[in-house]
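== Sequence and structure of one protein ==
=== Format: two labelled lines per protein ===
==== Data for this protein ====
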Amino acid sequence: MSRILVMTSPARGLLYPVVETLVTLRRRGAAVHVITLADEVVRMQDLGFTASALPPELNDAHPGDWKGDGRRSVGALTDGLIDRAEAEFRHLTSTVSTYRPDMILTDVSATGAQCAAEASGLPWAIWCPTFLPLFSTDGPPIGLGLRPGTTRAARMRDVGLAHVSRAIWEFAFKKKFNRWRLTHDLPAVAHCDEPLRRAPLIMSFCGPPLENRHGDWPDTVELVGPSSWAPPTEPDPVIDAITDPIALVTCSTELQADSALAGTALAALEDSGLHAVVTTGALDPDTFTSTANSTVTRFVPHEQVLATASVVITHGGMGITQKALARGIPLVIVPFGRDQRDVAVRVHAGGSGVRLDPRDLTPETLRAAVSTALGRTEDARRVASIVSAEGSAVRAADHIERILAARRTTGAVA
């Protein structure tokens, strides 16, 4: 029986995409231990894993680019990665010594855990639920919200911007990161994405139409496709009682300045004939005033709402976007940061939705965007035919077992 140790960053959006893969591995006979958010431990145990909580200094940390002063920047993101690295390294190293796994899995944002996995000498893998942060000139850099192109001008743009983007990241991150790595006798890196490239396996839970394989990625990258796993819940009778067509409105589960999306959607959809189901995620639902044709809550089973939704209005999180794309539901995406600009521009370019700049967000512009998106329903259904929403867990588990088999056969990391 293989023993697999999994450590996540403090975000459900990083935990949930890998859960179905872990369930698949457990069914195949593996023993899985998950280190994750404290309030997800029981859920993981109910799925048949052993589980433990992240230490408090990690459990209570914001995993993204959000600072209390509202600053969103490369520096804010890299500071967060460095701030968490030592605690991640120490906790994973300690757990390895007690659990004695055959393989380690970490998510793409757990920088310290990746370094601990690298230092352990064990086979290890990284999973990523969004665009991979690997240097590439085969497409525009992530974060700029640029439409991929195939013309000579687009290729020249991508090469130039890739090198500028790398320089910015390395100025913000590399010196601090290398200083920290040396405290653990790990070699300095020449480029920020080296720890990822050193992993024997990188699994991307993403795929067409939002992401395609890049020609200059390492062979260790596998696009396994999106995961649609969500915690099992009982159907919400409030949702079942809605008789009007539904517009699902989602805010991020990771704190960011997207409260304007929920408030504007409530105003825009009043008297529209659509019932707004608003999930506020990291925001307090009590700060919003419901209308006669709305339901406002922090969480609701998205799968239940998507079963009958006519349109999705969202910040552009990869999870909800890929679920809507797989169902052929048109989207209105109002991106506030992180990978959301790239998600928005690719959905818009593919014809399955509309991108609306948050600076232009008003009830009037949002209502118009919803009308346009609804007119693209047939295009959204066409796009759904190329979304590989089934089988990602099986593909991911197969790749993990390949690494384990190579370890057993050769005694070395594949």
